Amino acid sequence: MESKRPNILVTGTPGTGKTTLCELLAQTYQLNYVHVGTVIKENRFVAFNEELQCDELDEDALLDHLEVIMNQGGNVVEHHESDLFPLRWFSLVVVLRADNTVLYDRLQQRGYPLAKIQENCSAEICRLSADMAKENYPEGVVLEMSNDSLEQLQANCRQIGAWMEAHHQ
Ligand code: ADP
Ligand code: MN
């Protein structure tokens, strides 16, 4: 039986370049791109919490939906958090990192309000995404990558391609 292609999770603070890298990876290596935020929205995987009076992610529904897709292998998955998914789904977890002034400019260009820019920049300084991934996944699975420039974007794409070749022939 042909072995399944690996699933790769791409995580990181908003603005670090997840979508850009995922699209490049999908195109270069014929992977299926899954943007978890879009999956949640399109399938309305939110449930109203009466007690807290707010919308809450319906985690079970999301995970059931994704399980079928992950079982097929060959997915590159974008999400800003990494503690939501079963560990067995991913053979590689990429954490994108960006220099703080670079990130600030990208979020400003995106039209984020100042408070949201500052919140994300301090999350990046505090390594929230990187530490979340490293706390959850075994050593060797998590790869942290600087993604400040187009040169680094290309290098990251190549490095992930090389990883796939080495690990899943
Ligand atoms: P995320 O999905 O993590 O929020 P995006 O992929 O949407 O990030 O990228 C945020 C912005 O930064 C976009 O304007 C994108 O074009 C730019 N960008 C992403 N990666 C790079 C890179 N390596 N070099 C330069 N600009 C980048
Ligand atoms: Mn994105």
TrEMBL record:
Domain of life per record: Eukaryota
Q: Where in the cell is it found?
A: Cytoplasm; Nucleus
Detail which positions bind ATP.
15, 17-20, 110
Which top EC class is named for this enzyme in its record?
transferase
**Where is this chain primarily localised?**
cytoplasm
Q: What is its EC number?
A: 2.7.4.3
Q: Which residues form a coiled coil?
A: none
Write the record's keywords in alphabetical order, separated by commas.
ATP-binding, Cytoplasm, Kinase, Nucleotide-binding, Nucleus, Ribosome biogenesis, rRNA processing, Transferase
For region LID, the annotated ranges are 109-119
Q: Which reaction does it catalyse?
A: ATP + H2O = ADP + phosphate + H(+); AMP + ATP = 2 ADP
Give the molecular function GO annotations. kinase activity
> Which Gene3D superfamilies does the entry mention?
P-loop containing nucleotide triphosphate hydrolases
SUPFAM superfamilies on file: P-loop containing nucleoside triphosphate hydrolases
Q: How does it assemble?
A: Interacts with small ribosomal subunit protein uS11. Not a structural component of 43S pre-ribosomes, but transiently interacts with them by binding to uS11.
Q: What does this protein do?
A: Broad-specificity nucleoside monophosphate (NMP) kinase that catalyzes the reversible transfer of the terminal phosphate group between nucleoside triphosphates and monophosphates. Has also ATPase activity. Involved in the late cytoplasmic maturation steps of the 40S ribosomal particles, specifically 18S rRNA maturation. While NMP activity is not required for ribosome maturation, ATPase activity is. Associates transiently with small ribosomal subunit protein uS11. ATP hydrolysis breaks the interaction with uS11.
What is stated as this protein's family in its record? Belongs to the adenylate kinase family. AK6 subfamily.
Task: Check the record and name the HAMAP family matching this protein.
Answer: Adenylate_kinase_AK6
- What's the protein name? Adenylate kinase isoenzyme 6 homolog
Q: Which organism is it from?
A: Paratrimastix pyriformis
